[in-house]
Amino acid sequence: MATQTAPVPPSVGGLPATEESLLLQHEVEQTLYLEARLLDDWNLDEWLTLYTEDARYVVPTTDLPEGDPESDLVFIDDDYNRMAARIVRLKSRHAHREYPWSRTRRFIGNVMVTGTDDDEVEATASVAVWRFRAGESSPYVGRYDVRLRRVDGRLRLCYKRAILDLEELSDHGALSIIF
Amino acid sequence: MEISELVYDRPDLGKFRVHRSSMTSPEIYELEKRRIFDRCWLYLGHESEVPNPGDYVRRVVAERALFFARNRDGELVVFHNTCPHRGALICRTDHGNAQVFQCFYHAWSFDTSGALIGMPDIDGYGPDFDRAEMSLRSPRFDSYKGFIFVCFDQATESLVEYLAGAAEYLDLVADQSPAGMRVIPGSNRYTIKANWKLLAENSIDGYHALPTHQTYFDYMANEVGGNVPAINNRQGFGRALGNGHGVMENDAIYGRPIAMWHPYFGEEARPEIRRIKEDLIARHGPEKALRMCEKSRNMVIFPNLVINDIMAVTIRVFQPTGPDGMDVTAWEMAPADETGNLLRRRLDSFLSFLGPGGFATPDDTEALESCQHGFRSGGVEWSDLSRGFYRDPRGNDELQMRSFWRRWQSLVADLPHVEQFERGLALGETPEVLPSPELSVAADN
Hints:
The structure holds 2 protein chains of 2 kinds. Chain A is α+β, with helices and mostly antiparallel strands. Chain A contains 3 helices and 6 strands. In chain A, a hairpin with a 2-residue loop joins strand 5 (136-151) and strand 6. Chain A is globular and about 50 Å long. Chain B has helices spanning 26-37, 159-163, 166-174, 196-203, 209-212, 214-224, 228-232, 270-294, 340-353, 361-376, 399-412; strands at 7-10, 15-19, 42-46, 55-61, 64-70, 76-80, 95-97, 101-102, 109-110, 116-118, 140-144, 147-151, 181-183, 188-192, 235-242, 245-251, 295-301, 305-309, 313-322, 325-335, 382-384, 434-435. Classes of the chains: A alpha+beta, B alpha+beta. Chain A binds chain B through residues 59-64, 67, 69-77, 81-82, 84-86, 88-89, 92, 94-98, 134, 167-171, 173-176, and chain B through 94, 184-193, 212, 214-215, 218-219, 222-223, 327, 331-332, 343-344, 347-348, 350-352, 355-357, 359, 361-363, 365-367, 369-370.
């Protein structure tokens, strides 16, 4: 009988509990919470400072969550320059889906540090972003896979893959915010 | 209001108006289902989505659950997605590969051509049981250069006749590579809470591009080094293609993977894009090849299919869900043998403008929903589509939208359709190409 297979990559566990890993866990959580708060506050310029200049921000399509921007169609595949351009667009009054800006509240949970090497930390988190605008009030739900790097003593994001659990963009009709 | 009077078409007065009830009325929506979506050829999918025997893809077209597949002999097959026995969906995943299609409810099994090949305890059905009668049912379907359409009316003309002048424009996409074109994995699926005809209009509306999509043009100019003067000298025209299909064809103002180099693609891409262009000229001759390389095209195939051949090649189809809602699905196409940097540039080019996370498509969604809200405010009965009525059709005029609405009017009112080509242009004639200096950016949403 055919069986259903788990998505790739498979579920991962966290690091063993040591004093060092607890501190790292705290630091990763605080970085993700800070990102959520800055985005909820539409403090976009400050948000970008959380990222390294070689950063990449990817959102796969809802029907292909494992999508690879090198070979598949995705919703968003931004380098640092396009992230900056996205901010310029969202701050103008001409990103019409976000003028006026929607109200959002991001909830980050299930943060797990899944790996470390010399200079980078890998983590995953569950996320729900409630967005309210023009009568709409429903969440974008999904998972973040991130990599962070220590720059000048502070953890910065160098990769974020934000994977939507939605089947389609049926409530908000677009991904007009930074997810 | 008479159904036959919803489109006010007066070339003598330079007036073309559409009554807004056509986009809000539940009664008119019911008429559209019967008189348009039950009669017209409707896009289902692309043959490249089912390359191998047993491959299948399920889809909803005009509220009907369908699936298409490649049978074991390699032929394309299309089925109503319902068990002839008691109705359950046969195909319950979006895509996959199967040697047998089995209904999970009573375990009736069908081969890849739809023939009933088995069920538990067949003895219960007696000696006269007719397997053929209980096999999967197919709607009428046909494929044009890989684009698969279905039609729920046996009396409708053949697909090629129905496509009329749109077939040549599909050729301009399908012939871009000798290896054929394929649909890239991953699709944009989103909902717009607006009448479906607003998206048909918007998809061939050159007039809105610059005001609505200002942030995109700013991005291209500031971040990437877009050639802004080229926008102002852009030449193009709008064209009716028969049966309500319409297109606008314009000078491309950005890079085209096939095949116009732009700084956005980077210097290293230059020789490769030149080689593609030379290949196209060798295969198709300079006239067709240069059109393929250097012009962009936004086309509506009546009623609900859009083929954009712009900074990327897209297929977009929208399924109405009521007078004020539609489900949109969009895909990107590439030459079947394109890989590596060329494919990466194509994917990146798409994302700069298109898709629900792009720098332009969310603005269109907002505009359409804004119109639908505006209709409810009352006080104004008609929408105006008379732009360019008095002159040869430019790319940012509205001839191509008027041709859509004329076809809509004759179908929904059940009137004989008389093709009207404004300014005496017959199908196949190319209008004189004029610049549109006051505002000359095409809608590439």
